[in-house]
Write a structure and sequence with these properties.
Layout: E1 5-10, E2 14-20, H1 23-28, E3 36-38, H2 41-50, E4 55-59, H3 61-71, E5 76-79, H4 86-97, E6 100-102, E7 114-120, E8 126-131, H5 145-150, E9 151-157, H6 164-179, E10 183-187, H7 191-196, H8 198-207, E11 211-215, H9 216-223, H10 228-236, E12 241-245, E13 251-254, E14 259-262, H11 276-289, H12 294-308, H13 320-328
Parallel strand pairs: 1-5, 1-9, 2-7, 3-8, 5-6, 9-10, 10-11, 11-12
Antiparallel strand pairs: 2-4, 7-8, 12-13, 13-14
């Protein structure tokens, strides 16, 4: 039996390719700016060939969050699916090198390891084109009960909900967590994801989810209202804790009995918003796992988000543990 960990993440195991692009390039390629679009293998290759020089590293929403937990000095494990190819080896090595456990055996058949082509425009907005490859074929059998139950919290990404077997993998993980008395968290990922799976997400949030992460637009899509107060009233009736981000307006954490408003933090100029939500979740999850109150957990989330948007890339470029000590002592 391995040692307990703070958070166990479940998501798409993706290698990120990040490059800058002009608005003209985005328009010329008929891309939807500031969104995530699923593409097939052929489209992924054609866009990759047209992109400028970029950064390549292990990624994926929940994987980025686990990297943030580790940067805070926390412990994390990750469940995701890669192929036995070069990118799969890169993903596994990167995760282990930053201190995140990754023990899911690579698949020896099926599609290639997933990749996400991220185009960052001068206004710091990111447009993502994702080839899910083998990552979306996560199976319930890939979810190790021991790994899930070692975590103080389970964290699942909504992006994984596009394939039936992956849905069942998430349901399996949440059942394992509940069996051990652990809390399950879900991130809604983006509004397109919410729109694709609206009815199922409503059912999941009202049922198995204890902690929900969303931005204000995703919350509006989930509950069919643009009134933030109405959305917060609805979500606090469904989950134990909801964490809603609002960009430069900060965030709000709500329970059935409490509303905690969190100010945005400034670490540096906004360079790239990639990973802001992922790192916000990392700070909150780390705080919850370590027994912090909601105000402190939310402040850690804001700090992590501020750090990641101050540079290119979806993961911390400096130690979040050291940054937290600097800001809060």
């Amino acid at each position: 039996m391995h040692s307990p960990v703070d958070v166990v993440g479940v998501g798409n195991a993706i290698v990120d390719v990040i490059a800058t692009a002009t608005d003209e390039f985005i328009e010329g390629q008929n891309l939807v700016k500031n969104s995530m679009t699923l593409v097939d293998d052929e489209r992924a290759h054609s866009l990759y060939d047209l992109m400028g020089p970029g950064i390549e590293a292990s990624g994926g929403s929940a994987a980025n969050t686990m990297a943030g937990v580790a940067s805070f000095g926390g412990t994390a494990a990750y469940i995701g699916k890669v192929a036995g190819d070069q990118l799969g080896q890169v993903f596994a090595h990167d995760m282990r090198a930053i201190g995140v456990e990754f023990d899911v055996p690579p698949a020896d058949t099926g599609p290639a390891t997933a990749r996400c082509l991220i185009l960052v425009t001068p206004d710091a907005q990111r447009t993502m084109n994702t080839y899910l490859g083998i990552s979306s074929l996560l199976e319930p059998s890939d979810v190790q009960v021991e790994t899930v139950q070692r975590g103080q919290l389970l964290f699942c990404e909504g992006y994984l909900w596009d394939v039936e077997s992956a849905k069942q993998a998430i349901r399996t993980a949440m059942a394992f967590a509940a069996e051990a008395g652990r809390r399950s968290a879900l991130t809604l990922s983006d509004t397109f994801c919410v729109d694709r799976h609206h009815a199922e997400f409503r059912e999941l949030v009202a049922g198995s989810v204890d902690v929900l992460f969303a931005n204000d637009a995703e919350l509006a899509s989930l509950y069919g209202t643009t009134d933030l107060d109405a959305g917060l009233a609805a979500v606090r009736a469904d989950v134990e804790l909801a964490c809603v981000t609002m960009g430069e307006r900060g965030s709000v954490l709500v329970t059935a009995d409490e509303i905690v408003e969190i100010d945005a933090v400034t670490v540096g100029p906004v360079v790239d918003t990639t990973g802001a939500g992922d790192q916000y979740a990392a700070g909150v999850l780390y705080g919850l796992a370590r027994g912090k109150d909601l105000a402190t957990a939310g402040a850690l989330g804001s700090l992590a988000a501020a750090e990641v948007i101050s540079h290119v890339g979806p993961r911390p470029a400096t130690s979040l543990e050291a940054l937290a000590q600097q800001f809060f002592t």
